[in-house]
Every structure is written in C-alpha cells, then in structure tokens.
Amino acid sequence: MARERYFTGSRFEERGGYARGMRDGDMVFMSGCVGFDYQKDTIADDVVEQTHQAFRNVNNGLDALGSSFADVVRIVIYIADRAYYEEIVDIIGEHCRDVRPANTFIVAQLVDPRMKVEIEVTARDQKDAS
C-alpha cells in the first residue's frame, strides 16, 4: 500500500515541508494539531475552545485517511502552561475514555504564542489489521 498524506492547507505545513497526517499501511500518524480553524485561519484565545478545535482537526485528518478516533493507540498532548491541564483534562477524557490510548501530557512552549494546546495521535486502523 502506498503512503497517503493529509494536508489542511496550513501555512505551517507548506513552510515546514510536512503533512498534517500520514497513513502507512494500517498505521495512521497525525502531526501535532492545534486549535486553528484552518477554514477561517483563526484561533480562539481560550484553551478550552482551542482543545475542542484541535480534536476536530485530529478527527478530520483521521477521517480523511480512512480511520477514526476509535483506532487511536497513542495520544500526546502538549500544553503551553501546566495550569491548562485542569481546564482541559475532562475534554481529553471525553475523547479518550472509550478508547483508552496510551497518553502523555507535556508542558512545552509552542511555536506560536497564541497556541495553548497541541495534540498528536497515532492510530492503528483495525479494519486493515492482519
């Protein structure tokens, strides 16, 4: 199976030379997705709304690559301030509770000061699994 790539049209993808998502066989990798609404090229100020949008971006990519959040085996959440953890942990739980992927939270300075959360996932497409 040839590799399949997913692009949002984000200026970060073009400038950095990467795909937002990649399918390689039964594995699907989503690069860090932030709270940008790529259709409007806007980002909310609020970490809660950014988290909801980041999950929409993740799910859009998984869907475009023929997968879904039910196939996620690993999630890494980067937050720009440790105080954001308490604000978004329940949102993370809403998305992960039924799937129970391996999960890592990292406090890190993100590349754009408006960004408060970034979500990266790895999925293994069960319908293609041997």
Tags for this model:
130 residues; two-stranded antiparallel ribbon; 3 helices; 32% strand; 60s Ribosomal Protein L30, Chain: A; 28% helix; single chain; 8 strands; six-stranded mixed sheet; alpha+beta
Structure description:
The chain has helices at 11-16, 47-64, 84-96, and strands at 4-6, 21-24, 27-34, 36-37, 42-43, 72-79, 102-107, 117-124. The chain has 130 residues and is α+β, with helices and mostly antiparallel strands. The chain has one domain (4-128): RutC-like (60s Ribosomal Protein L30, Chain: A, 2-Layer Sandwich). The strands form two sheets. Strands 1-2-3-8-6-7 form a six-stranded mixed sheet, covered by helices on one side. A two-stranded antiparallel ribbon has the order 4-5. The longest helix is centred in the middle third of the chain and has 18 residues, at 47-64. The chain is globular, with a radius of gyration of 14 Å. It starts with a strand and ends in a 6-residue tail after the last strand. The model has no long low-confidence stretch (mean pLDDT 94).
Write the layout of secondary structure elements.
Layout: E1 4-6, H1 11-16, E2 21-24, E3 27-34, E4 36-37, E5 42-43, H2 47-64, E6 72-79, H3 84-96, E7 102-107, E8 117-124
Short description:
The chain is built from three helices and eight strands, in the order E-H-E-E-E-E-H-E-H-E-E. It has 130 residues and is of the alpha+beta class.
